[in-house]
Amino acid sequence: MRSFWIGCILLVTSPQLSEAQSLLGSSGLGMKLDPIDATQRALGGVGLSTRTPTILPGDPTASLDLLASTASFTLQPMWGSYKLGVDEGEFSGTRFPILGMAFPLGTSGVATFTLNSFFDQNSSAAVGDTLQLMGADIPITDQADLLGGLSALRVGWAQRFSSSIAIGASAGVYTGSVKRNFVRSFDLDSLPTLGTLKDFSKNETSAYSGPLVSVNLSWNPHSLLQLGGSVQWSGAIALSPIEGSIGEKEVIRAPIELKVASNWILGPGLFLNAGLSSSDWSNSGYPGLDAVAVGRTNTYGIGLEWEATRFWSGIFPLRLGFRKSTMPFQFKGQEVKERNVSLGFSVVLAEVFELPIAAIDVAVEAGKHSASDFEENFNRVTVTLRAGNR
After folding, report:
1. 6, pLDDT greater than 60
2. Which single residue of 136, 165, 183, 270 could bond 266 by disulfide (Cβ 3.0 to 4.6 Å)?
3. Where are the domains of the chain?
């Protein structure tokens, strides 16, 4: 068991173990990865608690109804095709967006530990050109590769102060690294006046670090309505060269992120979920990012959940969702939008007092990224495994 969790941690903190899925990983800090599990994916959620107890980064109140110490692991394969002008291609890969653990503190409190991916940086490009050298035009190829990502490690706490109000807080650090490789190769073996032409290469490896804090509130003003909200603050994110690597330290100001969500009971076993998140990456203090930043970006989501029947050891819910968002960074100078629809379900493997202590949550999404002449159609499957000790 110990080796299993060590492997999970390495998969989340070492993004290079999972291959790139999208051309969007080449812009800004890369492809944004929302830290949400399969239940949230299926409902078009933004990462705030619903009526299904779970473990969510930045929202410890989501774990308050877990009856036992619980661990969760989220797996996310993705595949699709893209079209950029006249160029077309396919992509595929697997991410490991969340690892979480929750420890109940009595009957009204909980402590959490989460590790989640935040941005995925993964791109590769080759450009052919000519270089004039000693009066001769030498054909060259420039190859640039970017590999890495930004993750967040946090501990959280939540407390229920009454039957209708709960407050949570989490604190943590950013982690991860990024590796940049540049190789210029000469498409001639030698030149009479210079002899053998050797490739030129430049490698840089940097590590991320920085603090982040979030607070959140869960409020049930009515037995049929649940409301949630959160604020996440980040200190300066430092990107520092790893010992032995060339390059200079860079400092990035991450924005405050706001989230609100609601969950209504529409009827027996029928729920409506809606959420909004908003952040502004346009003033990071780092010119390279600000040049491609979109400005304020918003994510909207809505979903329905129907407790269709009982299956295995508990309720078998079916979920349908829609999500629309804007990416923080431009691609080829254009704003990138994402739209997707989702389907999902949960299978309860074991429950106590009608609350699940072991379950599998599944979400299947079909979506599109678009920006001017860029179009990317993708399919994404998210699977979350949750298991607690009796």
Report:
1. no
2. 270
3. 2-388
Cα distance between residue 52 and residue 176, in whole Å: 30
How many other CB atoms are there within 10 angstroms of residue 350's CB atom? Answer: 14
Calpha distance 378→365 (Å, rounded): 8
Question: Top-level CATH class of 2-388?
Answer: mainly beta
CA gap 333, 6 in Å, rounded: 40
Residue-wise pLDDT tens digits, 266-290: 999 999 999 999 999 888 888 888 8
Q: Specify the pTM.
A: 0.85
- Position 21 scores a pLDDT of 54
End-to-end CA distance of the chain: 17
Q: Where is 277: in which H helix or E strand? A: strand 270-280
Give the separation between CA 281 and CA 292, rounded to whole angstroms: 10
Q: What is the DSSP letter of 149?
A: E
Q: Which segment, 2-16, 246-260, 291-305, is predicted with the most confidence on average? A: 291-305
Q: What is the CA radius of gyration of the chain?
A: 23
Q: Are 200 and 181 in contact (CB under 8 A)?
A: no
